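Please predict the structure of the following assembly.
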Amino acid sequence: MDTALKPRSTGRLMIVGFLSPTVLLLLFMVAYPIFSLVHYSFYNFSALNPDKGMDWAGLSNYEYLLSDSGIWKRFVFTGKFVFLCVTMQMILGIFVGYRLQKTFRGRDLLFTALMLPMMLSPVVAGFLWRYMLNSEWGVVNFLVSLFGFAKVDWLGQAGPALWAAAVVDTWMWTPFIILLATAAFRGIPETIYEAAEVDGASAAYVFFRITLPMSAPVLFIALILRLIDSFKQYDLFVALTGGGPGSSTETVSFAVAKTAFSYFYTGEASALAVILLCIIMGLAMILVRHLSNMGARH
Amino acid sequence: MARIELRNLSIRFGAFKAVDDVNLSIGDGEFVVYLGPSGCGKTTTLRAIAGLVDATSGDILFDGRRVNELRPSERNIAMVFQFVSLYPHLTIAENIVFPLRARGVARAEIARKLDWVTGVFRLGDELRRYPGALPPGARQKVALARAVIRDPAVLLLDEPLSAIDEQFREEMRWELGHLQRELGVTTIYVTHDQREAMSLADRIVLMNHSKIVQVAEPDRIFFEPASVFAGQFIGSPSMNLVDLVPVAGGLRLGDSTVVLGAAELPSGIAGHGRPVRLGVRPRDLRLVDGEGHALAVDDTFAVGRERFFTFRIGEAILQGTDHRRAGGGEGRVRFVPEGLMFFDAESGLRIAGGGRPA
Amino acid sequence: MTATRNQAYAHLSRWILLVLLGLYTIYNLGPILWLMISSLKSRADLFAMPPKLVFEPDFSGYQSVFGVGAARDSASSVGVFDSLMTSVFVSTVGTTVAVFLGTLAGYVCSRFEFRGKGDFMFFVLSTRMLPPVAVLVFYHMMFARLGLADTWLGLVLIAVFVNVGLATWIMKGFFDGVPKEVEQIAIVNGYSRIYAFLRLVLPMVKGGIAATAGFCFIFAWNEFAFASILTTTRAKTLPVKISTASGATGIEWTQICAAGVVLIIPVLVFFYLIRRHLLMGMTFGVLGRR
């Protein structure tokens, strides 16, 4: 890149004038809340009656959270959910993306159509699948019974509900993996494949030894973004399971919302939110470092 | 090792004929260079031999066996591409042994071959590095090592040196020629650079507009070009061309006053009966102090030691070499008789003249 | 012959791949199609088992969404149309403001080097990463204190916040595609930087601004987490309304299906407009910059 324009006096004015609204907004909407969140997490108080004041609690909120089996249960559930849906999305997305590399009639149209689910509101997705997964009159169980299996109470039992949620998240977000995977595959020059063909490598060998490793940097971005998004998943569970049956499908995000807005244990909710933030920011840091490495290589 | 034969090979892309009815046979261990301007069909021919492009019609034979339906991997060929085709995520060593690994060759055998090829290409220091860390020239060397490691019957090279800087190219060219003779592998090399073709080839296949123009040894293609195109494409600076007009006592150069007399003309030209063009390379068109034609010299200039001059005949500007002694007079233009080539003006084919210098 | 065996094998694997792709397409597009079909069913047909593929179309779901016809007076329908209006207003205004801010910030980030630029860009990126519920713990109190809870203004603020980072990154990408010489020539000819930006550069990124607006609108339109917690009665967006659409007889599926389709339609329209920029928009401009 050539050198940037010199920030002379008008330039400096422009920088300040153009950036300050956004900076102010973000300070107010991101920095201030996060700062307050950390602050609250050391206090016992409830947003219901803030006038009652805030009692210093030290680390007790954190101690309580880390010793509470209910919270651990939610972390374990979130972990299972993340693992399941991200694995399914990655495999499915890479496969479909690979298949869509080949040209055939109507490919571009199909590709565009396949992108649709990720553009939908998670609430619509959640309710739509809740409707389809109904144990009595849902179309999924109808198909299940067509193949001669017994109907499954998908959303009424903890185990199937986890799978159902993962299937719905996979439905929504596999297109995202397809989108990134095809972009990554397109970036591999044709001669690389020709060389491999002449060298006598089978299609599977080429896929695992050349296509996958060479698209790894982009697929890694896809992976991290999906880890972040599925780890903080909230909307989908509100619409699909409402956290149930019981509390078996409550994610960490769900637990933060419930603690803060149903029980109004604001201090405790803040502490849990801080833990959630740290995990997400850790993943984000990995992503940012990866991106700057990628940038440096170009 | 293999003999290769192309029989009536044609390749079409839609309405475009990339290769048009090509016939050629290449001997075992021969080094053949396909030469021609871009888009002439030389690379397409090479890719058809590799199996990366399907022949529309005609046969490709290896040792008399038709290979049209075989996949590239089943043809026992190796290929080096114009743009670097190394796998960026593999080390140099892993790149070189890739063809062996892909075919499931035993580990000990792989190690032995790697040792051998490392020695041949002097790649010992680079083995653990990645392609990105190497200059383009070295990368092509690795690509070449990868190509020869499994003793292919045919080595196909698609402009392998064109992306390398000038200095390293000379060296690589020499090494490549040396290596080919040592291995004795049948080699087909595609280039648009006549110097590469002249210095490497046993035979040159000159292509233009999807057809073969001439197949000959480098010397012969230079001294006995089959057509105007061959004469002009090979040799630098390029050959001068002038239409000849029949007049009393010989042939006149365009609308000039220069008339080539019987002494300068080969027999048979006078009786050709159709328009004739003269081709003469600058080295055979000399400005001398002694005998010659009187012509108005336009300009003289020097390129290093060599001095050149130009003059006009009608619209055409002709270039020759200046052989006058320093500080000489006006000079006269001499046509070296052995250097004169006569082409049919319509078909472009050579009808007389040319030939190796005695 | 190895050739023929290989060909048979290649043939077989090609068919298997094609069948798998077909199955995936059904999994991917089937549910959306099913939603559209279901939205036209009467309540009785909706619960029919086996599901009916041939049925008398029934528009009661849509009637209640748009507050017309027989559904007008039924208690359950009240507010769905209001929610639709809330969604339209909030998404439109929020998108406009976010794109305006993002265009300014994106231009500066594309054209100038200044201290803290990297930090700013990361700061902006963080809006994509933040778990909504985390900041909501604080917003909930802040909005109450500032009187923003359950108001359109509060929702607009959220819509801007959700999108301003995205808009900045995407617009930076589009500005990067405009050669710097455009401004340099203008400045050499005595025009001001502001003039160059407004009259020369902006017209060159019109398409980019439209694409950015398309993305912002979709995200604002779909936004649920913030709206569900920060609004209670007066200012419910359509996604929030859907999530609370349960009446005396349980979940109002006819309404939900129709509202779902109504929610999807603008998304379809904008999605079509931005389809070429999907990679850029979905990765926060990290990939797919041209």
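The two ends of chain C are 48 Å apart (CA to CA). Chain C touches chain B at residues 2-3, 6 (CB under 8 Å).
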